[in-house]
Predict the 3D structure of the following.
Amino acid sequence: MFDVVIIGAGPAGASAALFTAKAGKKTLVLDNDKSVTKRAWIENHYGVKEITGPDLVEIGKEQARKFGAELTQATVTNISKTDGGLKVETDKGQFEAKHVIVATGMMADLAEKAGITTKPGTEPRIKTIFDVDAAGKTNIDGVWAAGTIAGVSMHTIITAGDGAKVAINVISELNGERYVDHDILKSV
């Protein structure tokens, strides 16, 4: 069983995976390789002069893998409750997790089958988003959402930050106390 399964490896999902894996949580990222970021040219991401969307996505995946996140290319078809947590069904099999973070960008099609409450989107061209609280929790215990699908602006810097925020909240819940990830500069 995974501590966290993250659906989507764009900026929100990969950022969440970076934090959960770095915190020592057994993390799996499931991605269908259809991120809208893969079509982007980015010049407004703090700390990055300019980058292609595909490069940003690949760097994010590499960072998550560095800390032990597993990445699998698959399309998620359902999320359901089990006695021990959650079951994530895909076209490549099923996985069990204590928590699931949905970071599917503009794709809300998973909501109806999984029973996740939605509401109208507020961003241009975003018709439907998941109804989440300030922490990123959906109406299903253990299912969280981050990034554009959770109603934040679809700019990569914002979705990445939201993925980190939701991951910190999941880690805090798993640990039973507030988690902070703050590395310090090593002496030279």
